[in-house]
Design goal:
By secondary structure, the chain is an alpha+beta fold. Among the domains are: 9-31 and 231-327 and 329-336, Immunoglobulins (Immunoglobulin-like, Sandwich), CATH 2.60.40; 36-224, Jelly Rolls, CATH 2.60.120.260; 663-763, Immunoglobulin-like (Sandwich); 774-950, no CATH class. The chain has 14 helices and 52 strands. Strand 22 (316-323) and strand 23 form a beta hairpin. The longest helix has 25 residues, at 591-615. Its EC number is 3.2.1.23.
Length: 954
C-alpha cells in the first residue's frame, strides 16, 4: 500500500475548527458536505385498508399534517382506545375483558387498561408521511442519501413516482441511496411506515415493538436528513483498537461514483477528548478505487494511549478524510476508545483488570414520547443516575438504542449489552427456518456496522429468552459467526439461556434468590435470614464468566403521586385503576405509607440479591430487573426509580450504592437474629473491582444501637486488597451478653472509605414469666370463651393454615415482596408486600420493629396467614397490617384487638405457639404482646361478636 502525506497538520487544525458541538456529540459540517434537515411539517394520511400503494398515494397530496420527528401518537393521530384495540403484547391475565369489577373501565370513551401505560390514540397498520423537498442547483447529478434515524417499523420510500426501496431495521437508521440523479427543483418525498408484525415475527413482547414498554408506535424519530454525496466519499469506517500494540487498525470503505478509477487518498488523525493527552501524528495512505474499496491503515496511538473503562472514560475522535485529486473531499469523525473487554477464567476483564458487571435493564420505557430519545443529553442523564446507584452496566432487553445512547455510554464509562430486537418466545420462535432467522443476522450486522466503534458496546446477543426446537444450534452458529467476524466485544446466545461452551459468557437466571415459579420455596422465603450463602455450587460447572439474569424483580406499592408526571403520550391509567380500588376499600389515605413500607422491604430484598452475587468467588456480574419500574406485563413495579428515572422517596443513590458498587464490604452472617447469651461470629469479606489495588487498607467494624451509640468496634489487620471478590479481611467475634433489652443493632463495616451495613436483632436470652391470667390459645374453645365472658384477656394465636379461605386463608403470604407481579406470574406467592405498623404502638414495645418489614419479621411472615379484616368488622384497624397486592387492595391484618363480650381479645394471624422454643422472634413477639395485654394500654374499643372470630378459622 502506498503511503502518501495528503494533508498537513495545519489542514487538520483547520478541519478541527469546523467541528460543531451538538450537546456532548460532535459532528463535522465542512463546506463540501451538504445536507438538508427534513424536520418540521409533513403531510400525512393513514392507510388502514392498505390502499395507498395500489392507488399511488405518492402521486397525490396527502390531506393531513403532522410534525416530524415524531409519531402518530405524539401528533394525536390514530383511533380512540376501546376494548377491541389491537394491542401488541401478551396479556396473561385477561380478566379485565369480562370481570364485572372492571366494567367501569370498559365504557366507551372512558377505557382504562391495567396491562401497561396507555396512549390517548392507537394505530396499527400503514401510514403515509409526505413532504416537498428542494434540490439545489449545486446538487445536480450527485448521489443523494435519505437518512431516517429511528423508524418504527417498516419503511418504503418514493421520490415522486419512483420507488426507492424498503427497509425494516428496528435498531439502526434507515438509509436510502437515491439513484436516478434528481434534477434541481422541487420533488415529492413519500414514506410509508408500517408498524405491524408481518412475516418477520420478532415476538409480540419484544421491547423493540411491544406495548408493554415504549409502545408499538408508528412514525419517524430522530434526525431526518437528505444528504448530497460527492463522487468519492467514505461509506464506512471501522476501528479495531489493540491496546497491547498501542495502535488502531482502521478499515475505511471508500466509494467511487465518478465512473472511472481514481486514486483515493485517505488521511487519519486521532484526538483525545481529554485535556493534557498526548498529541498524535497524522497518518495517510493512497489506494486505487474502481467503484468501492476497503483501505486498511494501522494508526499508532503514541507511547501512552489513554485507556477507556468505567473509571476513566477516555474517548478519542478519529478524523478520516478522503480526496481524489482536488477537493471536494469527504470527512468522517468517529468516536472510539482504547479498550479490551475480555474474559479470564470466570471473570470479565477490562484492559486486563478484573471487573464485575453491576447492571440493570433498559426496557425502552419512555412515557413522554413513547419512543427512545436520540439526543445525547437525555442518555447522559440516565447513565449519571445509574452511576449514582453504583451501576456500571446496562442491558438493552430485546432492543438496541440509538447512536446517542452509545455516545453517552462512551463518555460515562458504561458497559453495554445489546440485543438484536427480538424476544422469540410466547408466540415466536428462532432457529426453525422462519424469516426471523435471517433477520437476526441482518440486524446484528447493521448494529455492529452502525455502532461497533463505540467502546461502550461490549456485549452482543441475539435477544431475550429464546424458544424454538432448534434454537440451541441456531444460536451456537450465531455465536461462532460473530466471534470469527469481530473481536471487539463478547458474544453469547440469548439473555437467560441457552448455555453453550462456544459462548464468551453465560447468561442464566440460576444464581438469584428467587426463581420464576419458586414461590415460597426460595431462599428468602423458606430459610431463616442470613448472609453466608453464595452461588459457587451453581457456577462451578462452567468455565466462562456467568452473569445472573434478571435478578430481583421485587415489587413496591404504586406511587399514586406519580400519575401527574405522565404528561406525555403515555398515561398511567393503570395507576388510576389501582388507586380507585384502594379508595373503594377504604384505605386511600394509606397509599403513601404502603409505598414507603413496601419500598423499604423492596430495598432489603435487592440488597440480599446483590450481595449474594458479590459474595460469590469468580462470579461475572448481575443484571437487575430492575433499577426502574417496568410499566407493562400487568404492571411490574420492580424499581426503586419510576419510569422517568426519578426516585420514590425511600432510598437514595448513595444509600443503594453502599451495597452495589465497585468496592463493597461484605459480611457472612450465619443468621440475623440472636439471643443475648450468644456470640456474633462472622467472616468479613470484600468485593474489590475498583480502579486500583487498595494498598495499606485497615478494615474496621462497629455495632451500634438504634440511637446511634457504638456498642462494639474493632479494626481488622491492615493489608493490601487486590482485585476480586470473596477476599477475606478477618473475622468479627463478639459476645452479645451486654445487650440487656430487645434491640435492633446495626453492624457497619468500613474499608478505604467504602461502608456497608446490616441490621441484626438481639433478644434477651431469658424472659420474665408472663401474666398467668392472660390465656394464650390457638382456638376459642370453651375455656377461652369462659375467660372472655368473665371479662378476662385472651390472645388467640392461629395456627398457620387454620384461616378459612374466604377469611384470608387463600392469600399466600411470605417474607419477600411480590416477585414481578401477580398477573404475569399467575399469583405466584407471596402476593403481598410486607407489613405496615406503628412502630411506637405499645403492643410492640418489647419487639424492636420499624414500621416496615425487616429481617425479624421473616419468621412471622413464614408462620402466618393474612386475616381479611373486613370479614371481621368493616373498617377494623389492625396493630400490624399486611400490605396487599395493589390489584386487589384488600384490608389485611396480622394482629388486631377487639372487645368480645365482656372480655378483651388480641388476635394474631401469626402462629406464636408452635415450635416457639426454636423461634426466638416468635418467643419475643409473644412476650411483647403479653406485656401489652398486661398493661393499662390494652383497651380495645372495637366490638366484635364471638361468632365473627370463630368463623375465621377451620
Amino acid at each position: 500500500m502506498k503511503i502518501t502525506a495528503i494533508f498537513s497538520i495545519s489542514t487538520f487544525l483547520l478541519l478541527g475548527s469546523l467541528l460543531v458541538a451538538r450537546g456532548q456529540q460532535w459532528t463535522a459540517t465542512p463546506p463540501f458536505k451538504e445536507e438538508t434537515d427534513l424536520s418540521g411539517d409533513w403531510r400525512f394520511r393513514t392507510d388502514p385498508q392498505d390502499k395507498g400503494e395500489q392507488e399511488q398515494w405518492y402521486k397525490q397530496t396527502l390531506p393531513e399534517t403532522v410534525k416530524l420527528p415524531g409519531s402518530m401518537t405524539t401528533n394525536q393521530k390514530g383511533d380512540d382506545i376501546t376494548v377491541n384495540t389491537p394491542w401488541t403484547g401478551s396479556i396473561f391475565d385477561s380478566s379485565w375483558f369480562h370481570d364485572p369489577a372492571y366494567s367501569q373501565y370498559r365504557i366507551a370513551g372512558k377505557v382504562k387498561v391495567p396491562f401497561w401505560l396507555q396512549p390517548d390514540k392507537y394505530y396499527k397498520g400503514a401510514a403515509w408521511y409526505q413532504r416537498t423537498i428542494d434540490i439545489p442547483a449545486n446538487w445536480d447529478g450527485r448521489e443523494l442519501e435519505l437518512f431516517l434515524e429511528r423508524c418504527h417499523w417498516e419503511t418504503k420510500v418514493w421520490i415522486d413516482d419512483t420507488y426507492a426501496g424498503m427497509q425494516n431495521s428496528l435498531a439502526t437508521p434507515h438509509v436510502y441511496t437515491l439513484t436516478g440523479k434528481l434534477a434541481p427543483g422541487q420533488h415529492t418525498l413519500s414514506i410509508r411506515v408500517d408498524n405491524r408484525v408481518k412475516d418477520i415475527d420478532v415476538g409480540p413482547n419484544s421491547h423493540s415493538i411491544s406495548d408493554h414498554t415504549q409502545g408499538n408506535w408508528n412514525g419517524l424519530a430522530g434526525r431526518l436528513l437528505l444528504k448530497a454525496k460527492n463522487d468519492v466519499y467514505i461509506s464506512d469506517v471501522q476501528l479495531y483498537p489493540d491496546i497491547a500494540a498501542k495502535n488502531v487498525t482502521a478499515l475505511i470503505t471508500v466509494r467511487n461514483n465518478s465512473g472511472k478509477p481514481v486514486a483515493a487518498n485517505v488521511s487519519l488523525q486521532a484526538m483525545a477528548q481529554t485535556q493534557g493527552a498526548e498529541t498524535l501524528q497524522q497518518v495517510a495512505a493512497s489506494q486505487q478505487v474502481d467503484t468501492s474499496a476497503v483501505i486498511k491503515v494501522v494508526y499508532p496511538m503514541g507511547q501512552h494511549p489513554l485507556l477507556w473503562d468505567e473509571f476513566h472514560p477516555n474517548v478519542y475522535q478519529m478524523t478520516v478524510a478522503v480526496s481524489a485529486g482536488k477537493p471536494p473531499y469527504d470527512i468522517r469523525q468517529v468516536l472510539f476508545g482504547m479498550r479490551e473487554f475480555a474474559t479470564k477464567g470466570t471473570h470479565f476483564t477490562i484492559n486486563g483488570r478484573p471487573t464485575f458487571l453491576r447492571g440493570t435493564l433498559e426496557c425502552a420505557a419512555f412515557p413522554k414520547t413513547g419512543y427512545p430519545p436520540t439526543d445525547t443529553a437525555s442518555w447522559m442523564r440516565i447513565f449519571r443516575i445509574c452511576r449514582s446507584y453504583g451501576l456500571n452496566h446496562l442491558r438493552f432487553h430485546s432492543w438496541c438504542p440509538p447512536e446517542a445512547a452509545f455516545e453517552a455510554a462512551d463518555r460515562s464509562g458504561f458497559y453495554l449489552h445489546i440485543e438484536c430486537s427480538s424476544w422469540a418466545n410466547q408466540g415466536a420462535v428462532i432457529g426453525d427456518g422462519k424469516p426471523l432467522d435471517a433477520y437476526i443476522y441482518e440486524e446484528s450486522r447493521k448494529i455492529v456496522k452502525a455502532y461497533g466503534n463505540h467502546p461502550s458496546f461490549c456485549m452482543l446477543l441475539y435477544g431475550n429468552e429464546p424458544a424454538g426446537k432448534h434454537h440451541v444450534q441456531y444460536l451456537t452458529d450465531f455465536v461462532k459467526y460473530w466471534k470469527q467476524r469481530d473481536s471487539r466485544r463478547l458474544y453469547s446466545t440469548g439473555a437467560g439461556w441457552p448455555i453453550i461452551s462456544e459462548s464468551d459468557f453465560n447468561s442464566t437466571p440460576a444464581p438469584r434468590i428467587q426463581q420464576w415459579g419458586e414461590g415460597l420455596k426460595s431462599i428468602i422465603n423458606s430459610q431463616p435470614p442470613r448472609t453466608d450463602y453464595d452461588w459457587s455450587a451453581i457456577i462451578s460447572k462452567w468455565q466462562h464468566p456467568t452473569v445472573s439474569h434478571e435478578i430481583g424483580q421485587w415489587c413496591v406499592y404504586p406511587d399514586f403521586d406519580e400519575i401527574k408526571q405522565y404528561d406525555g403520550v403515555l398515561k398511567a391509567k393503570n395507576f388510576e385503576i389501582f388507586r380507585d380500588q384502594l379508595q373503594k376499600n377504604g384505605m386511600g389515605k394509606l397509599a403513601h405509607d404502603f409505598l414507603l413500607a413496601s419500598g423499604k422491604l423492596q430495598v432489603l430484598c435487592y440488597k440480599a440479591d446483590i450481595e449474594a452475587a458479590l459474595r460469590t468467588p469468580g462470579f461475572g456480574g448481575f443484571q437487575l430487573l430492575g433499577l426502574y419500574d417496568f410499566p407493562g406485563q400487568g404492571t411490574a413495579l420492580v424499581g426503586v426509580l419510576n419510569p422517568f428515572w426519578r426516585d420514590k422517596g425511600y432510598v437514595t443513590g448513595p444509600e443503594y450504592s453502599s451495597f452495589c458498587n465497585a468496592v463493597v464490604p461484605l459480611v457472612r452472617l450465619p443468621k440475623m437474629v440472636y439471643l443475648s447469651n450468644e456470640h456474633l461470629s462472622a467472616d468479613v469479606e470484600i468485593a474489590q473491582f475498583g480502579p486500583a489495588v487498595l494498598t495499606g487498607a485497615t478494615p474496621s467494624w462497629q455495632i451500634s444501637n438504634s440511637e446511634g451509640q457504638v456498642l462494639f468496634k474493632d479494626d481488622l489487620p491492615k493489608k493490601d486488597i487486590p482485585f476480586g471478590n470473596a477476599i477475606n479481611l478477618g473475622q468479627i467475634n463478639t459476645s452479645l451478653s451486654s445487650i440487656t433489652k430487645p434491640s435492633r443493632l446495626t453492624l457497619t463495616v468500613e474499608v478505604a472509605g467504602y461502608k456497608n451495613a446490616w441490621d441484626i436483632f438481639v433478644y434477651p436470652a431469658y424472659l420474665p414469666a408472663a401474666d398467668p391470667h392472660i390465656l394464650v390459645t390457638q382456638e376459642l374453645d370453651q375455656q377461652a370463651q369462659d375467660v372472655l365472658n368473665s371479662g378476662g384477656k385472651v390472645l388467640l394465636s392461629l395456627k398457620k393454615g387454620a384461616l378459612k379461605a374466604d377469611k384470608g386463608g387463600d392469600i399466600a403470604i411470605g417474607f419477600s415482596s411480590i416477585f414481578w407481579n401477580t398477573a404475569w406470574t399467575k399469583q405466584q406467592p407471596p402476593v403481598t408486600l410486607g407489613i405496615l405498623c406503628d412502630s411506637t404502638h405499645p403492643a410492640l414495645r418489647e419487639f424492636p420493629t420499624q414500621s416496615f418489614s425487616n429481617w425479624q419479621w421473616q419468621d412471622a411472615m413464614s408462620h402466618a396467614g393474612a386475616i381479611k379484616l373486613d370479614a371481621v368488622k368493616k373498617g377494623l384497624q389492625p396493630i400490624v397490617r399486611v400490605i396487599d397486592d395493589w390489584v386487589t387492595a384488600r384490608s389485611l391484618g396480622l394482629l388486631f384487638e377487639c372487645k368480645v363480650g365482656k372480655g378483651s381479645l388480641l388476635v394474631s394471624g401469626i402462629d406464636l405457639v408452635t415450635d416457639r422454643a426454636r423461634r426466638p422472634e416468635a418467643r419475643q413477639l409473644l412476650f411483647s404482646l403479653q406485656q401489652y395485654m398486661h398493661s393499662k394500654d390494652f383497651k380495645p374499643d372495637a366490638k366484635v361478636d364471638l361468632a365473627q372470630i370463630t368463623a375465621l378459622y377451620q
